[in-house]
Specification:
Two copies of one chain form a homodimer. Chain A is α+β, with helices and mostly antiparallel strands. The first copy, chain A, is built from eight helices and 19 strands. Chain A folds into two domains: about 160 residues, Aminotransferase class 4, branched-chain amino acid transferase, N-terminal domain (D-amino Acid Aminotransferase, Chain A, domain 1, 2-Layer Sandwich), CATH 3.30.470.10; about 170 residues, Alpha-Beta Barrel (D-amino Acid Aminotransferase, Chain A, domain 2). The interface between A and B is large, with 67 and 67 residues.
């Protein structure tokens, strides 16, 4: 089905950035997808147009009340030129779960996938092929009704933009240093921590800035109630390998249901590695470090894929993990997952969708 | 000082809405104030221009990471035509406290006040004079850097827009019904609940929608840790009058430091009425209702001023307050505060600033 997506091709193609020196999220492709919503009319006018600024009334609700949702996923190009994407269906499912939480009208997931397919085909020359690079895809919804007053918007825009990217962290696959945050809180049960909405990220900036000033890449968030249980890291989920077992915080309602998180769990189980999804306290991690059973720690996310953690700072103490180097399992997971994504490792779990 | 604010007057004046039928936040004046920020250059190019859409890159950080701050205040016109505003200095102070929490660069408060003065003068014909109406003023900051990746923006816009408004609630000064929310949580200590940032409002929509479906105007939020202590109501702070004493939740870090809240406390103390700012649990309120000492309940906020609460719903039980009618103190506070704001009651606390 074409879903009646119209296409206005760009007549003024942009110069592509050097694929060897890509920074994250600073270049955008020639086209974007856009679709309107009005109460009564529903979602309508799906279209691919040249990448361009959008004009909004200064009273647009997104500026004032933050009603917005986003997703992040990646596309790759195989050696034979085939375009493949990693589990895009999961992103559109989650988009609608986030929409529901933020009172945003649902989007037909099949239409979203078809829009993505057509946009990828028209801009496939933008997919970088260097190792460690990809085309990062950002679907998002913003509330556009021009009216002050706190209530769900009567108008929205759904858009997809795409950006050729390199590593999310300047460290690449090298271990990052993480600051365990005891003062600031990202989210709490009953809140919107499990929705991919802008406000969760705004709420994280101050702690992240202070962590940077102390020489750390990201913060590790503790739960908002007890300030004790581990939630997630900056823009990633987190895993620990303790005494041979992999442990990651259970989905509590206040952390993001990461698609990379889910994939890592499925991959480990496919390998016969035990994985526990449960509450894990910072005290348990520190104790495991003290008794020598904390073997590895890594973050997972679409942008960074796998990011090994080489050091944790908690309450003024520094805890080095795996001598600050990348652990064996982290490396194997990174190589396997990025290999599957680039089409050079067998996709035995059926994750990659070919775009044609 | 003029701060070098340039003015481009509108040549195409809009038709003003009927002041007798104003809804909240749907009409905007002929002009707006706008100022740019770039890292390195700082805030620059302050200007008043015709009210118009703004063009932003689809990757502008406000759409993705919600780095945005706002304020709300009101201007009035006295019978002699004098334009007056209610405590605007407090709003610009709070704007910068919110900016600090959200890693947004500070704005010169004197410049903000001067921009407001000039904007009010050029659009003073838009200030409605009917009882219960005012010109609602919305200063706000949005992050505009076109880059994906979670970190503070390198570019911002600061704007002021203005809207002639009637009552915030369709009930006007009549009592509203409030649903005490036990499932959803607005904010938690360590979070951004005390900053006036978009994400806090996005996080409130779902609970508000469900409360509306049950026939309630707003929700009363409980604290995120114990789910027991009263925080605030929708877009208002909340006060109770129990056994002759006025009680309002202390500023805990997760509730908004309301300027109307502060003014009500100052006014009550000026009258010699005792006011307690402290933790107050929903159980204490229910118990006071049971033993007949819960005399009044009212919300306070810039938009609604004073909004009496006629009914609370908690855990499936309904608690009617003051027989569902407006209490004596609520009425006196409303009449006094709106009287001061409209220039017909003596401004003995020196709150009103004349614009000339």
């Amino acid at each position: 089905m074409s879903f009646g997506i119209s296409i206005e091709a760009s007549t003024n193609k942009k110069q592509k950035p050097d694929p060897k020196n890509l920074v994250f999220g600073h270049h955008f492709t020639d086209h974007m997808f856009i679709m309107d919503y009005d109460a009564g009319q529903g979602w309508h006018n799906p279209r691919i147009v040249p990448y361009q600024p959008i004009a909004l009334d200064p009273a647009a609700k997104v500026f004032h009340y933050g009603q917005t949702i986003f997703e992040g996923l990646k596309a790759f190009k195989k050696a034979d030129g085939t375009v493949i994407t990693f589990r895009p269906d999961k992103n559109f499912e989650r988009l609608n779960r986030s929409n529901e939480r933020l009172s945003v009208p649902a989007i037909d997931e099949k239409l979203g996938l078809e829009a993505l397919r057509q946009l990828l085909l028209i801009d496939q020359d933008w997919i970088p092929e260097e190792e460690g690079t990809s085309l990062y895809i950002r679907p998002f919804v913003i509330a556009t009704e021009a009216a002050l007053g706190v209530n769900p918007s009567q108008k929205y825009l759904f858009m997809i933009i795409m950006s050729p990217v390199g590593s999310y962290y300047k460290e690449g696959i090298n271990p990052v240093k993480i600051f365990v945050e005891s003062h600031y809180v990202r989210a709490v049960r009953g809140g919107v921590g499990d929705a991919k909405t802008a406000g969760n990220y705004a709420a994280s900036l101050k702690a992240q800035e202070e962590a940077h000033e102390r020489g750390y890449s990201q913060v590790l968030w503790l739960d908002g109630v007890h300030r004790k249980y581990i939630e997630e890291v900056g823009s990633m989920n987190i895993f620990f390998r303790i005494g041979g077992k992999v442990v990651t915080p259970a989905l509590s309602g206040s952390i993001l249901d990461g698609i990379t998180r889910r994939s890592i769990i499925e991959l480990l189980r496919h390998w016969g590695e035990p994985v526990e999804e449960r509450q894990i306290s910072i005290d348990e991690v520190i104790e495991a470090h003290r008794n020598g059973t904390l073997q590895e720690c890594f973050g997972t996310g679409t942008a960074a894929v796998i990011s090994p953690v080489g050091e944790l700072s908690f309450n003024g103490e520094k805890y080095t993990i795996q001598d600050g180097s990348t652990g064996e399992l982290s490396k194997k997971l990174y190589d396997t997952l990025t290999g599957i994504q680039r089409g050079i490792v067998e996709d035995s779990l059926g994750w990659m969708i070919e775009i044609k």
